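Worked example

This section walks through a single chain of length 111. The input is the sequence exactly as stored; nothing has been trimmed or padded.
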Amino acid sequence: MDEETSKSTSLPQPYVKTQDPEWYAGQAARLRDELERRKAQLDEYREAIEEAASLKTTTGGVNLDEGDTGITPEAGIEILQQRVSEAQAELDALEDVARRNDIEPGILRGQ
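Given that input, the structure is written out below as tokens.
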């Protein structure tokens, strides 16, 4: 048997997700959604602080079911900003991997 013939009829290559544009599109969409959710949380938190500072709204106590009991407003903003930065860093890392694997930039933007 000819070696070239046996090489051409070999098993198909295994699936490599880093070479799949659809995988990048899905990951980028998930990370963009996460980034937007975290930005919205930060904006809501800042707005709540502004409302509390100007006494636009009041509450009748402390909700102990919320995870932020005992955190200063500034620390809360810092925590939420860190979460936004982490989500952005994940998206940036995905873009770097895509660039190294010759994936078109539009794929990550959903275009």
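What to look for: DSSP finds four helices and no strands in the chain.
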